[in-house]
Amino acid sequence: MSRDRGSRLLGEGIIKGLAETARNFFGSYVSKQRLTTVQYPEERIPQDESFRNFPFLVYDGSDPEAGLRCVSCQICEKECPPKCIYIEKSKDKKPDAVGKPQFYPSKFDIDISVCMSCQICVEVCPFEAIKMNTEFELSTDDRFDGLLLDRKELALSNEYYHQIHPTEAADVDARLKAERAAAEAKAKAAAAAAAAKAAAPAAKAATPTAQPAAAPASEISPGMAAQNPTGTPTAAATTPPAAQNEAAGATRAPKVETKKEGDAS
User: Fold this and answer.
1) Are 12 and 4 in contact (CB under 8 A)?
2) How far apart are CA 51 and CA 39, in angstroms?
3) Which of 53, 119, 125, 259 is the most buried (most CB within 10 A)?
4) Rounded CA gap, 55 and 116, in Å?
5) Cβ-based neighbour number of residue 158 at 10 Å
6) Domain total in the chain
7) What is the pTM of this model?
């Protein structure tokens, strides 16, 4: 009796297991919650914002040549662990998106067959010029030149950056805007200070100098009387006192003596 009960329980377990397997198998074709397979490439699963694959270069505006943020500092090339970035710095400068003359990369190549998607190049870039792309359909029949991306292939607009990483791109734009506003304010303050410094000598030369008031005759000393209005001692002031007395005696009128009538007799 116990033997029949044990065999019956064993058979029920197998049947229950098979039923659950069949329910999961057929249910995956009809239940929306369990339809995990998409018909790729016609259907695509939305990518997460934190997904990253290979780097790309960001440019502002509509011109990838003028708006490229990269100034060819070559920090990413030096810090890249697999050494898959190759940069040649330009010899001249050209205006960037805000009109400031900057160096630019005459050559910027990334070998994505070597890139390990570590994102170190993004972390060390001080100009927010290189970011991680989400594009993964990069298969090609050329394993050499087909996987070596140049500057034109790497340059993507800031609008594209906002599409794939909206939160990160908004934070970057806000930080760059604040830095540019601070730089413009500093430049305006320096220009105003330089203009004020240049205008100070002209204003000082145009201002008339006040002449000192003449002292009363009773308060003028002989030395002061011998000075001209500019304060420079005259020849009389530098003449010794003895010479001044002789000159005064020579110019003094002779005294005429008159005799009285009594004295004549």
Assistant:
1) no
2) 21
3) 125
4) 10
5) 20
6) 1
7) 0.62
DSSP 3-state of 67:
coil
Q: What domain range includes position 158?
A: 55-173
123 domain-assigned = yes
Tens digit of pLDDT per residue, the chain (265 long)? Answer: 455 555 567 788 889 999 999 988 888 788 777 777 788 889 888 888 999 999 999 999 888 988 999 999 999 999 999 999 999 999 999 887 777 888 999 999 999 999 999 999 999 999 999 999 999 988 889 888 899 999 999 999 999 999 999 999 999 999 999 988 998 899 899 999 988 888 877 777 776 665 665 555 555 555 554 455 555 555 555 555 555 556 555 555 555 555 555 444 3
Which residues, including other chains, have CB under 8 Å from residue 173's CB and lie 6 or more apart?
158
Q: Is 88 helix (H, G, I), strand (E, B) or coil?
A: strand
Q: Give the H/E segment covering residue 160.
A: helix 158-164
Domain annotation covers residue 158:
yes
Q: Residue 31 and residue 25: Cα distance in Å, rounded? A: 11
Residue 81 contacts residue 118 (beta carbons within 8 Å): yes
Pairing of strands 105-111, 148-149: antiparallel
Residue 128 lies inside a defined structural domain of this protein: yes
> Is 239 among the domain residues?
no
Take residue 23 and report the two structure tokens written for it.
């329910």
Phi, psi of 132 (to 5 degrees): -95, 130
